[in-house]
Amino acid sequence: MTLPRPNLFKLVAVAAAFVASLGAFALLARDDGGSGPRSAAADVDLPRPGAPTDELVRGYQAAVRATPGNAALRAALAGSYLQKVRETGDPGYYARADAVLRRARALAPRDYRVLTTSGTLALARHDFSGGLAYGLAARSANPASEAPYPVIVDALVELGRYEAAGRELQRFVDAKPTLASYSRVSYFRELHGDLDGAAQAMALAVSAGGDTGENVAYVQTLLGTLDFDRGRLDAAREAYRLALLRFPAYVPASAGIARVDAAEGRTASAITRYRGVVARLPLPEYVVGLGEAEQAAGRGTAGKRDLQLVGAEEQLLRANGVNTDVDLALFEANHGSPSRAAALARRAWASAPSVRSADALGWALTAAGRPRDGLAWARRALALGSRDAAFLYHAGMSARAAGDRGAARRYLGAALAGNPRFSPLYAPRARRALEALR
């Protein structure tokens, strides 16, 4: 598959936003031409591919106990812990994966499987420089393997090195057109404003299938989000529904339906769904979705109460080694201390100068009363051609506060063009601001 020219793209990041197929981790425990776990521990029963994650965890734990000197089995166990984070949102599994990988690196410091999984953990914790170092080391250890590509691509994207990321992504797709590569093509196109192309690539990712139901539900949910961003609310709801069929009670898909409910004015239903989501998986993004839906419904006291949970969840993530500077900066700019938001966003930009951190810094500076500086950073966030409604809303409101009426009209109009109901709280503000500018 040939990628579009770089100026047509949009790239994949993450608040969590990497696609790490558990199948890749399982294969790490099997494929090494005679030096992997099967040859080193032929009598050890490995868990069956595609087994439920809890079964994989138990199976690899038993295998590690039976062959404690086998580093590749430890990498596979760490991978199953990372999958548990994806399914449960429990960041405590990061610490478990870290402990297993430290021992694995001590046993086999040049094992590409151990290095690849170490890179995946680093990315999950938003240590993008560390993730890139591990990914490059893994490729150096085994240039013939495609396993390091996801780590390298995701790290380069989050570090703002988009041209290099595009080159690596093209090599990845050429080598292995799978769920993992197609989903990254989708995000790369999205970052560059090609939402239709992003949806096409994500549909290919869904069709390619994955090694666990969660992996396929994940990309199905991302496809729903692309439909939402293009204002196709019925298609978005259907995509989220299909994700739930593939992986029942899948929280990101349930949150997606709540978001559609809110966009369609079904505020009570959205709040009820969000409460169910937060009860199962109280990640900051879902708590913010709940709180802002309540604020949009005029339930300011309830919204403020629920938004207080964000601080506790952010502390829990940070205690488990996750860097939350970008997300927390945006939260503080919207609901807390603008000066703290600016400090967090500057730190985020220093460690990972991506369009995400540029957007966070621009919005934080605007909230702190420096809209001209904020607008300059907002333009950096949009430099790739992004059609992200939040980016455009931030740019439009910054331009309005800075007195640049023409730019404010353009940005706010663009924010509402893709999906006029992109947020129950901010879309109405964007409309009111645009009407006043006219």
Plain-language structure description:
- The chain is mostly helical and 438 residues long.
- The chain is built from 24 helices and no strands.
- Helix 3 (53-66) packs antiparallel against helix 4 (71-88).
- The termini are far apart.
Biggest β-sheet, characterized?
none
Q: Helix and strand succession?
A: HHHHHHHHHHHHHHHHHHHHHHHH
Strand tally is: 0
Mean pLDDT: 90
Query: What's the gyration radius in Å?
Result: 22 Å
N- to C-terminal distance:
45 Å
Estimate the global geometry from the Cα principal axes. Answer: globular
What percent strand? under 5%
Number of helices: 24
User: Unreliable segments (pLDDT under 50, ≥5 consecutive)?
Assistant: 1-29, 31-41
> Structural class of the secondary elements?
mainly alpha
| Residue share in helix | over 70%
Draw up the topology in text.
Elements: H1 22-28, H2 37-40, H3 53-66, H4 71-88, H5 92-107, H6 112-124, H7 128-141, H8 149-158, H9 162-175, H10 179-191, H11 195-208, H12 213-229, H13 233-246, H14 251-263, H15 267-280, H16 284-296, H17 300-319, H18 325-335, H19 338-351, H20 355-367, H21 371-381, H22 389-402, H23 405-418, H24 426-437
Helix pairs in contact: 1-4, 3-4, 4-5, 4-6, 5-6, 6-7, 6-8, 7-8, 8-9, 8-10, 9-10, 10-11, 11-12, 12-13, 12-14, 13-14, 14-15, 15-16, 16-17, 18-19, 18-20, 19-20, 20-21, 20-22, 21-22, 22-23, 22-24, 23-24
